[in-house]
Amino acid sequence: MYTFVDRGDRSLTLRPEATAPVVRAFIEHNLGAGSLPVKLYYFANMFRYERPQAGRYREFWQLGVEALGSAEPAIDAEAIALAMEYLSSIGIDGATLKIGSMGDENCRPAYMETLRAALAGKAENLCEDCRQRLALNPLRVFDCKNPACRAALAEAPKMIDNLCGDCRAHFDAVGALLGQIGIDFEIDPMLVRGFDYYTSTTFEIQSANLGAQNALGGGGRYDRLVADYGGKPTPAVGFAFGIERLIMALPAAGAHNAEAVQSTDVFIAVIDDKDRPLAFKTAVEMRRLGLTVEIDYMGRSLRSQMKLADKLQAVSVVVFGPDELARGKVTVRNLASGEEKTTGLKNLLASASKGFK
Ligand code: AMP
Asked: Which domain holds residue 268?
């Protein structure tokens, strides 16, 4: 935790993650009263007092998604599919999905005792921190990157092999649904997430291009958290991506998915300076119709404006030329086909909203 004492001698802790704040907001604003599940997202900065290194910062950004109100395995699969499809939509391919289960209040307590007993036998191999974790919460040992602790864990019994019937059935159902929609995954028995509130499904998405800090994002179920915060018991699932890691994993600039780049619908080119106010007004009106419109503000020549339109991948260029304007008309050029036609100024907005067809 990033905790410090401020000038008023108060101990302050900066927000380390946003699932708990989302849950608090869910309860405070009674969001569970409407139809369920409630689907929320956030984009926010987080703070953790960790040793800074490549991909691990004390301030970083997360994009997170939470769905509260359903225990159905299908919503776990939906959240995972959303995460995977988001990655491909921004041009990150080849990420690996790992899934696991943390069990629930029926099977986890017994498993924790089994794990504690197994690790206690190897306590002398564990790092100082893990020896303490052993007493408090042996699952926390799974967060440790120390090779000796990893080795001790590798031989220890795993939660995934000690699930109760309900947790096993839920886990298998999530896997079957992912299979049905063609999302590949690996089952990772070591995937036990650090926050205490996770139950049942956990998942992590990793990239091979990130080095030691290879997690792009992760998440899972937290079926008890709403009740723990004093709300009505509400099962929930969510995940968060680390924005800096996504940026690191993006292919080098220029090679990214062209479809992800918002292209310009219309570029308005102006020949005579006196027509700029009219062109400006038209641009604003077209934007109000929902079109992406660009216009020159640098006094460029027509030639340079056409070059710019090309660079912006404009679909159409509307040329405000003095001769046509004198007759109440403008020229519309489709940049892909090179086709040109004239349109009356009066019909311009209606025609633009139909893509000048
Ligand atoms: P977590 O909330 O720990 O499950 O983290 C979700 C994601 O946030 C991770 O998979 C990382 O991509 C990112 N993340 C977590 N901690 C950091 C950090 N200190 N610096 C940068 N990114 C982080």
From this structure: 263-353
| Boundary of a domain, candidates 256, 272, 306 | 256
pTM > 0.85 = no
Which atom of ligand 1 is nearest to 58's Cα? Answer: 19
DSSP 3-state assignment of 329? strand
pLDDT digits (tens, 9 = 90+) for 100-110: 999 999 999 99
Ligand 1 in reach of 243 Cβ (< 6 A) = no
Phi then psi dihedrals of residue 5, to 5 deg: -95, 130
Same domain, 275 and 337: yes
Check whether residue 88 and residue 197 sit in a common domain.
yes
DSSP-based three-state secondary structure for 57: coil
pLDDT by residue (tens digit) across 211-255?
A: 888 999 999 999 999 999 999 999 999 999 999 999 999 876 545
Q: Encoding tokens for residue 96?
A: 């690996």
Mutate to test the pocket of ligand 1, among 56, 63, 239 (most ligand atoms within 8 A of CB): 56
Does the C-beta of 122 come closer than 6 Å to ligand 1? no
State whether 196 and 304 are in the same domain.
Answer: no
